[in-house]
Amino acid sequence: MPFSRRDRLGLPFVSPNPQPAVEVSGLVKRYGSKTAVDGLDLVQPPGTVLALLGPNGAGKTTTVEICEGFRSADDGTVRVLGLSPSDESLRPRIGVMPQGGGGYPGIRAEEMLNLVAACAAHPLEPKWLIEVLGLAGAARTPYKRLSGGQQQRLSLACALVGRPELVFLDEPTAGMDPQARRLVWDLVGALKDDGVSVLLTTHLMDEAEALADNVVIIDEGRVVAQGSPSELTANRADDQQLRFRARPGLDTSLLSAALPEGLKVREATRGTYVVEGLIDPQVVSTVTSWCAQQGVLAEELTVAKRSLEDVFLELTGRELRS
Amino acid sequence: MTTFAPGTFTPAPGRGSLPKMLFAHARTEALLTLRNGEQILLTVIIPLALLVALSLMSVIPMPEPRVGSATARIFALAIISSAFTGQAIALGFDRRYGVLKRLAASALPRWLLVAGRVCGALAVVAIQILLLGITALILGWRFPLSGLPWVILLIILGTLSFGALGVLLGGALRAEIVLALANIVWFVLLMVGGVALSVPVGFVHLLPSAALAQALETSVVYGTAPGVGPVAVLVAWGVVAGALATRTTKLT
Questions:
Q1: Which residues of B touch A8 (CB under 8 A)?
Q2: Which CATH class is domain A240-304?
Q3: How big is the CA angle at A14 (ends A13 and A16), to the nearest 5 degrees?
Q4: What is the DSSP letter of A5?
Q5: CB within 8 Å: A186 and B3
Q6: Helix extents (H) in A161-204
Q7: Residues of A numbered 189-228 whose beta carbons fall under 8 angstroms of chain B's beta carbons: which are they?
Q8: Which top CATH class is A22-232?
Q9: Domain extent listing, chain A
């Protein structure tokens, strides 16, 4: 894809030949006898945010590292901005935030960012980026003495400083406090608004729901579902949920009998009860009076559509956070 | 909520200029070494102390001219300290902290990742040699200037060969193991590897340490070209180590 550097600065990014930011088909990766990625397909349209969602060990990092050119695929094809991941001309065009960051143990935060900025033709101002990411107070702190969250933020700065077209963020908010996490979310939004494609991995449903145009749920190296968050959590009329928390191990058979036909009750996780089906005011009333009979208080009672967590649980029978 | 002006992150990708990247990387490598207290102890303080001891303490056997011979040997030790032991330890911990992966993920070409480290190491060696050389001159070393080009060539060759050995060690094993091994090897080479003392055992001449010390002695003391033998030994170790290291070095 030819592009001129001269007219790139200051103008909105318009891809002359829109092609997928990332296109993966039939990707297979084995480590010894273990298959980490098992025939994975995904397509990320340019300028969109795609979240790879799955539990630890699902194959998210392996997939991303193959796209970044750090690992080789055993089978399948991967195109990143239309190029092979091993193509050297690709690397200035992508920004990478490896899991857990990375830096010389003795280097100061600002020196590390300056070094990475020196590798780019039109870098963002490192000083500004350090401030934006809340690292101004730690700018002269050696890398090994930064907290995990600070190392993550520095790594994010390194991923963005070269003004890439596509950014890979592997567990970008791991180890961050809620404020920093919020900041990362805002940054991802700003990147998208400016036409940057973002591929991120996460095991946090709220993160995927908040940020992604498209979510690819993977488990044991396979895609188990994909679509926009609203598609994945779409409500059919009878597909609502009432959730509440109470003492674990309650006998729900009486409640089951008291509810209208078609409604199902289960203890989804220890102490969290879920009623599924068409939830109307009568159902809520039945549930609360049953709780009163049991002598328990229903806490955090909510009526909601399915979350990505529910989708994942349904598809795999396991919890995302496990 | 943090807001950003529209267009802040508008893509403008591109690779920085090669000389600028090389300079930035080499400068970082050299600066981090010079800022590290343990590295300074190993690469500057101990060689300086040994240079003074070998020059002045006549209980240690040393061929005449005493200061010249000591200088040649300590030059060799300084190169081993910095290019082998220092480089191996730094690389072991750099891998632990993920910097190689971080840099490999930037627009820095892979060959430049190696070139930057080499230039950084050469800069550190140049500073070491300068400090040691000045001290040697004060101690009474008379340097035959005809040896200067040979000394410079040998310093570069020694740095490359021992650097390759350092990368071979530091690029493959866990940081703590690298730390221990690199220091043990340094001590063994110093004592019985033909550096501090001449060891009259045949196979010692096949060690890169003895080869470097011997070659430097010829040029530093007599100002003449080093023998082909020691140079060949150094080159062979460097080439073999370099070839192995390209297969065994891991980013993390």
A1: 10-13
A2: alpha beta
A3: 140
A4: S
A5: yes
A6: 178-193
A7: 190-191, 193-196
A8: alpha beta
A9: 22-232, 240-304
d(CA A42, CA A80) in angstroms, rounded, equals 12
Copy the structure tokens of residue B249.
């070095």
Indicate left, alpha or beta for A107 from its phi (over 0: left) and psi (-120 to 50: alpha).
Answer: beta
**A22-232 and A240-304, same CATH topology:** no
Q: What is the pLDDT of residue A321?
A: 55
**A118 interface with B at CB cutoff 8 Å:** yes
A1 touching chain B per CB within 8 A? no
DSSP letters spanning B5-36: -TTTT-----BPPHHHHHHHHHHHHHHHHHH-
CA torsion, points A132, A138, A139, A140, in degrees to nearest 10?
170
Backbone angles phi, psi at A273, to 5 degrees: -105, 145
Q: Where are the alpha helices (DSSP H) in chain B?
A: 18-35, 37-40, 46-56, 66-79, 87-96, 99-104, 110-139, 148-170, 175-192, 208-222, 228-248
| Chain A residues touching B12 at Cβ < 8 A | 5, 8-9, 121-122, 163
Distances (CA, A) of A281 to A259, A276, A285, B162: 12, 14, 6, 79
* Tokens at A216, concatenated: 């690819």
Is B97 in contact with A111 (Cβ distance < 8 A)?
A: no
- pLDDT tens column, B23-68: 999 999 999 999 999 999 999 999 999 999 999 988 778 888 889 9
| pTM, 2 dp | 0.83
Q: Is A91 on the interface with B (CB under 8 A)?
A: yes
pLDDT, position B111: 86
pLDDT above 60 (res B127) = yes
Is residue A266 within 8 A of residue A250, CB to CB? The reply is no
Q: For the purposes of burial, counting CB atoms within 10 Å of the CB of B30, is it exposed (0-12), middle (13-18) or buried (19 or more)?
A: buried
ipTM for this model: 0.90
CB contact under 8 A, A91 and B14: no
The per-residue pLDDT for A30 is 94
Contact A21, A44 (CB under 8 A): yes
CB B81 within 8 A of CB B186: yes
Measured distance CA(A243)–CA(A245) in Å, rounded: 7
Length of chain A: 322
- State how far the Cα of B133 lies from the Cα of B153, in Å rounded to an integer: 16
Q: Which residue from B7, B97, B251 is facing A105, i.e. has the nearest CB?
A: B97
